[in-house]
Amino acid sequence: MIGEIPGVPVGQPYASRVLASEAKVHRPRIAGICGTKSAGAESIVLSGGYKDDEDLGDVIIYTGHGGQDGSGNQVSDQSLDDSGNAALVTSHLQGLPVRVIRGSKSESVYAPQSGYRYDGLYRVASYGSKLGIDGHLIWQFRMEAALGTPTPVIEADQLPVDSPRSDANAPVGNDTPDRASSNVQRIVRSSQVKNAVKRWHSDQCQVCGITIETPGGTYSEGAHIQALGRPHNGPDRTDNVLCLCPNCHVKLDTGAIVIEDSLTVIENGVAAGSLRTHPQHTLSLECIRSHRERWRR
Amino acid sequence: MIGEIPGVPVGQPYASRVLASEAKVHRPRIAGICGTKSAGAESIVLSGGYKDDEDLGDVIIYTGHGGQDGSGNQVSDQSLDDSGNAALVTSHLQGLPVRVIRGSKSESVYAPQSGYRYDGLYRVASYGSKLGIDGHLIWQFRMEAALGTPTPVIEADQLPVDSPRSDANAPVGNDTPDRASSNVQRIVRSSQVKNAVKRWHSDQCQVCGITIETPGGTYSEGAHIQALGRPHNGPDRTDNVLCLCPNCHVKLDTGAIVIEDSLTVIENGVAAGSLRTHPQHTLSLECIRSHRERWRR
Q1: Cys bridge to A143: A60, B70, B257, B269, which one at CB 3.0-4.6 A?
Q2: Nearest CB to B184: which of A93, A97, A255?
C-alpha cells in the first residue's frame, strides 16, 4: 500500500475522510498518519490540526502526532514512540514515498476549497524536534514533493485577498514552477561549498577519522550541521558544513551524534572524541547549537 | 560552468560544434567530454563515435574516452586516468549534473536530424568497466535524466521505418512518458526486497560488521551487488542484495570492494575478511561474478 494507488490520479478530490478511506488513499478515518514503524508511512492528511504545520506547496513542514487535548492545544511532549511518528522516521530512513492528502480545514493556500484532495507522493527529507508554539516538544518532518509530483494548484477561492485578480479568467497557481531547475542550481552552488570543506580535510572524516579509498579517488561527503531549508533554515556556508564519511553523515542527520560547544562529539549520549579541525575551517557555534537543539528529547 | 547555461533552454539546436562551443554549452570543439578530475564533467556530446554507446532517451549508456584509432575502432584499453573519464567519475561521486548534447551522427532515434541539440541535465548514476565490442576494456557511465529534464522528443525523420505513421500530423515522441511514476513504483518494489535482507541481518553490515544506531532505530542499506538496469542488468532479488553500512555501500558501488566466489571480501586488492552470511540469505554467484567483472582493470 506504499506509493501510488492504481487508478487514483494526483488531484483526485474526496468529499469526506470516509470516501478517501474507501479509496485506500488514506485508510484511517481519524488519524492523520497511516503507517507502522516496521513498514513506514503510507499516507498523511494535512487538515489544520497542528498549528506548527507549514505548507509551502511542494515542501510541507508536518508536525507529528500526539500531545494534544481535545481542543487542539499541545499539552504534553510528542514522542518518536508514537507509531505514526515512528512510521515517518522509517519512511525517511528507507527513502519511501508517502501519499499526501490536503483537507479544506487546513489554513494553507494550497488546501482544497472543500473536502479532501490527493496531492501525490512526497518524501520525508529530514526530521527533528523543537519546542512548538504551545511550549511543548514536537517532532517535525520536512516532506518534499517526489519526482513527478507537481506543485499543487491554488484553487481560486484560496487566493490571498490582496493578490492581483484584474482578469477573472487569468490562470491561478504557482508563477514559479521551475522547482526542478532551481533545485539543480542550488545543488551546484551547495556542491562548491561542500567541496571546499572536503578539500581542506582531504576527504578524512572529521568524526571518525577514516578516509574511504575508491578506484576513482578518495570519497567523503559534505554534511550540513544545521540542515538547509525550513524548518531548520541552516546557511549554505563552509562554517555549517562538516567533511564526513557516509556513516557519520547518517549519524549526524539522524541525531545519533550531536556536537558540544567544545567540539566533543556525543554519540548516543556517550562522549566519542573530539571533532577533527583544520586551520582554514572555522565552524559556526550557532549552527552546532541549533543542530543539538533539533535532537533534544 | 556546471549545470544549466542561463538563457539556454532544453532543446536548443546548434548547427555546429563551433556554435555549441561559443554558447558555452559544450566548450571543446573536438573532445566528447568537457571537464576535469577536480571539478567534474560540465558536458558530454553523443555523436556516434563509440559503438558501445546505448541511447534509451532518458537513460544513456555512455562510453568513456580513449583507446581508439583514427577510424573509430577500439584498439587499446580505456583508463580512468583519462581526464574526461576521471571527470565523469567525480560527477558521479559528487552527484553533479552534466549537460548532454546529442549530435546527428549518433544512430539513436533521439538524435537530432541535423547538427547538435542541447538536451538538458543528466546525472552519472553508476559506472563500471567491461570488454567492449572490439575486445578492449572500456569504461561506461550510466547517465540518467535529472529531475526536470524531459525525455527528448523523437524528431519525425528519426522514426523507425516500420512505425505507424498513418496520420502525418500525429504527434511523435515517447508514448510512455511517466518515468517519474514508474520510477516510484520500482523504488517501492525494490524496497521490499532490500527490507527482507536488512531484517535477516538485523541491520548489521555484512562486510565490516557494524550496526549504526540512531534515535529512530538501527540503520543499514540494501545494496545491489550487480547494479539494476542497463548496462549491468542485475536482478532485483534478495540473492543480489547485501545488507551494508553506508560506507561499505559506497565501496561496493565504486569497486573499492569486490567479492570472491569464496565470499572473501577484497578491498583495494587486499583480502579483508569474509562476508557475513545468514542461513535464509542465499547469494547469487552469477551476480557476484558480474560485479567483479565490472571492476576488472
Answers
A1: A60
A2: A97
| Rg, chain A, Cα only | 21
Helices (H) and strands (E) in chain B, counts: 5, 15
Q: How large is the ipTM?
A: 0.77
Return the closest-CA partner of residue A119 out of A139, A87, A91, A148.
A148
The answer to whether the Cβ–Cβ distance between A148 and B295 falls below 8 Å is no
What distance in Å separates the CA atoms of residue B125 and residue B254, rounded to the nearest whole number? 11
Q: Which residues of A touch B250 (CB under 8 A)?
A: 212, 214, 219, 246
C-alpha B297/C-alpha B292 separation (Å) is 10
Q: In this complex, which of A86, A188, A295 lies closest to B96 when CB atoms are compared? A: A188
* A-chain residues near B183 (CB < 8 A): 147-148
**pLDDT tens over chain B, length 297 residues:** 899 898 999 999 999 999 999 999 999 999 999 999 988 999 999 998 888 999 989 899 999 999 998 888 889 999 998 999 999 999 998 889 999 999 999 989 999 999 999 999 999 999 999 889 889 999 999 999 887 788 888 876 665 544 443 444 444 443 443 444 555 666 677 788 998 999 999 999 999 999 999 988 899 999 999 988 778 888 999 999 999 999 999 999 999 999 999 999 999 999 999 999 999 999 999 999 999 998 876
Chain A residues with CB-CB distance to B2 below 8 A: 188, 191
CB spacing of A216 vs B268 below 8 angstroms: no
C-alpha cell at B48: 556516434
Per-domain boundaries in chain B = 13-149, 183-294
pTM: 0.77
Q: Is B291 exposed, middle or buried (0-12, 13-18, 19+ CB in 10 A)?
A: buried
Contact B178 A256 (CB under 8 A): no
CB A84 within 8 A of CB A129: no
Query: Which residues of chain A are within 8 Å of residue B210 when distances are taken between CB atoms?
Result: 247
Beta-bridge partners for A68? A74
Look up residue B162 and give its DSSP letter: T
Picking from B149, B187, B195, B252 by the largest number of A CB atoms within 10 A of its own CB, the best residue to mutate is B187
How far is B221 from chain A, CA to nearest CA, in Å?
A: 8
**Superfamily of the domain at A13-147:** SRA-YDG (2.30.280.10)
Q: What pairs with residue A271 in β-bridges? A: A266
Judging contacts by C-beta atoms under 8 Å, the chain A residues touching residue B96 are 187-188, 191
Closest CB to B256 among A93, A214, A297: A214
Q: What is the C-alpha to C-alpha distance for residues B296 and A131, in angstroms, rounded to an integer?
A: 54
Q: How far is CA B47 from the centre of its chain?
A: 18
* Angle, CA B75 vertex, CA B73 and CA B79 arms, to 5°: 110
Nearest chain A residue to B149, by CA: A180
Contacts of B64 in chain A (CB under 8 A): none
Give the residue from chain B lying closest to A250, CA to CA: B246
Distances (CA, A) of B134 to A29, B56, B69, B72, B75: 63, 22, 12, 10, 7
How many whole angstroms separate alpha carbon A259 and alpha carbon A79?
Answer: 22
DSSP B197: H
Length of chain A equals 297
Question: Which backbone phi and psi does B198 adopt, to 5 degrees?
Answer: -65, -35
Q: Are residues A185 and B249, on separate chains, in Cβ contact within 8 Å?
A: no
